[in-house]
Design goal:
With about 150 residues, the protein is of the alpha+beta class. The protein has one domain (about 1-145): Gcn5-related N-acetyltransferase (GNAT) (Aminopeptidase, 3-Layer(aba) Sandwich). Helix content is about 30%, strand content about 35%. The two termini are about 25 Å apart. This is Acetyltransferase (GNAT) family protein. GO terms for molecular function: acyltransferase activity, transferring groups other than amino-acyl groups.
Length: about 150
């Protein structure tokens, strides 16, 4: 169900893009900020990403998490669920899987300060708010950290 996916393959990159765009549009609405880079990311840009991607797949890709490992810290870059699959526990499963398989690591993640569902999810795993920073006039993101 959850396994590493290869974003360098065109079909996988298309699957990522097909759920990423609508999901980030919803976050953009929550934040009141419509210039989230992943909304306009091309297939080629996804293929060239240096992030590691884990996908939640049943009959199709329903969600994914991506990250970069930097020493003892895993920086979560994306957590995306197909909007048609919201509230099915997919995001929780993806985060839980990543944490379970990297128990010795620290984790950081940033999300829109106004994205209450994402904030609540990370906090439920024990992530603590570390800092808030402005990404555009009047628009903030919050960074969370989980130290093991």
């Amino acid at each position: 169900m959850i396994a590493r996916i290869d974003q360098t393959k065109e079909k996988t990159a298309r699957d990522i893009q097909s759920i990423q765009r609508p999901a980030y549009r919803i976050e953009a609405e929550l934040m009141g900020f419509h210039d989230i880079p992943h909304i306009s990311e091309t297939i080629e840009e996804i293929q060239q990403s240096e992030e590691t991607f884990l996908g939640y797949q049943e009959e199709y890709l329903k969600g994914f998490i991506s990250y970069k490992e930097e020493g003892d810290v895993i920086d979560i870059y994306r957590l995306v669920v197909d909007p048609l699959q919201f509230r099915q526990g997919i995001a929780r499963s993806l985060v839980g899987h990543l944490l379970e398989h990297n128990k010795e690591k620290e984790f950081i993640v940033s999300t829109g300060t106004a994205n209450a569902p994402a904030r609540k999810l990370y906090e439920s795993f024990g992530f603590r708010e570390e800092e808030t920073f402005e990404v555009a006039p009047g628009v903030t993101c919050t960074q969370f950290r989980l130290a093991n």
